[in-house]
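We modelled each protein-ligand pair independently. The example shown here corresponds to the adenosine-5'-triphosphate entry; the chain sequence is given first, followed by the ligand as SMILES.
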Amino acid sequence: MNLLTEPHAIKMPYARYSEASRQIAGIEAIDYFFARQFSQLLFSERQESGVNSQVNNIFHCFLALHMSLRAGHSCLPLKEIAGQLLGFASDENGVVSHQGYALPDIKSLTALFNELAIAPDAQQAIIFDGQRLYLRRYYLFEQTLLSYLSAQQNSADHIVIQDEKALAQCINRLFPANNQINDEIDWQKVAVANALNKTFSVIAGGPGTGKTYTVTKLLAALVSLSQAKALKMALVAPTGKAAQRLSESIVQAVAGFSDLLPADILQAIPTNSQTIHRLLGVIPHSPNFIFNQDNKLDLDVLLVDEVSMVDLPLMARLLSALPSRCRVILLGDAQQLPSVAAGSVLADLTPIKQTQYSAENQGYLSRVTQIQHIGRASKNSVDYLTYLTKSRRFDGQGGIGLLANAVINGESEQSWQLLQQAKAHQVPQLAWYDNSRLWLTQLVKQYYLPLQQASSIEQAFDWLSQFRILAATRSGETGVENLNAQVETILQQLSPALQTNTHAAQTGLYHAKPIMILENDYALGLYNGDIGLIWRNNAGHLMAMFEQSADNIQAVLPSRLPQFETVYAMTIHKTQGSEFGHVAIVLPKDPDNQLLSRELLYTGITRAKQQLTIDSHKAVWYQGVERQVIRYSGFQE
Ligand SMILES: Nc1ncnc2c1ncn2[C@@H]1O[C@H](COP(=O)(O)OP(=O)(O)OP(=O)(O)O)[C@@H](O)[C@H]1O
């Protein structure tokens, strides 16, 4: 069937894209062609149907569905669009620029889609299920996740370790009683105990709450309890950088446990992490992987870190590739930005905002941890989920933790007051500027100029990790591209060597320039988001250097590099999974910028370990803190 041939009986609401874009604000060509193609497909199969008079409504719903997918939702709940005027826009004087389109109420829309018979089993490309419209692909990914979860929750025989006495001994050895502070519940201990009797668990918490520390104890417990059976364990994260950090944190945690555990147990704790893509085995130019539902991984334990960054398709593919015996432990901060691509897996898996277990689970936990009051039983319990709440990094009166909390709780006034106090130097760790850029020259001098004088590449990487400028957008005055150009101009003013460097002027490359890779190159082993430094080697040639692990630096000829860009400044989205000593966040000037959200600000703020500089107007800050990222999915009510 030729999809582009319109069945003659059906008249589409817009003859071409230009007409639709004049009428509907915010659409892109791809939304229009998606709606047109799938409406035509539907009607070509239903020429005699009574729904023909509804072509406009169907077209508009499909248009809204595609706009939703583009915004990262995995579906479109009809209740979000029913009875509304969508795509309408007018200027500040009330002059209408786009008329938009109106949709019928929920009852009529539901009746229409029921009549179309596009239920999940109808083998259609667009599916209507549970009052939501889906593209079939995303529906199937979501089903994979949902059925994985229900299989874990319903099957007690998946639980590997059932000897509670042995469990209790092991847990109490890992968490000696003197770890208990002022009768506070040690949630790290609870999290380990909780994960030990489940094949699936989620340990969630903000930065520095000890997720990696806790999970290292969990791995130690699994090794101790496996009774000489060598477990096949894998540690993964969504990006190379996050995988590297996970390895480093586990090595650091293991080093601190020498008083708690014998050397043979410590040695058996895995420390090598890899990306999820690497574990699954990338097939070049294909979205599929070597390991999948028909060719499963041989694993007993899988730990996934930074789950907020994992999108729905990747999580579904990962879970499909696991054998049923595999224990899965997910770690992440559910309050961070969701994945760039579709879905909000971690947010969906953490539907309640504090730990709440069933009475049965509480009974088990009390028995093995000897902690008596783990909480009241609740109907809303989610037994696989434990929150760690005590930040080991941002305690006391440090401004970063206070600001992060106020932002994620939507407290615009309180967070703004913190910034004002910071201006008066009353809050440690914070500095605030009103879109002035006064800080830029000083921080470039402090952090970026010294890179040129670093005595070794290792030292340069170390210094580079101390500071980063973060922006919400790529383009525009406050975007990454412009900020990078400004830093380079300042560096040229400060460094006479750079001013006279004709090679730099011709190629844009110079010694100690930080770069970020923008596309995967499997042959070179370089991936989107990898950060490197242009560096003059001993032979006097400029090479691109990448820190593959703490003691392995890879040198690549600049001419062989995949697409890359300068990275004195980067987007907040791209910094997920990384941290820096000092972070400077530059926000857009327009409060209506659609990228602004409290999750974006929170993610940016929590990238800073010691010092944070914020550059924002008041109206922009308020908008950012008040707006929340919402992602629709079939996990929600
Ligand atoms: N119970 C504890 N006792 C002592 N030190 C701890 C404890 N829990 C965590 N820490 C220390 O606190 C720091 C942060 O812990 P960790 O790296 O595990 O946190 P995280 O939640 O994984 O943080 P992020 O993912 O943001 O890096 C580490 O230096 C760790 O050794």
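The first strand starts at residue 76 and ends at 77.
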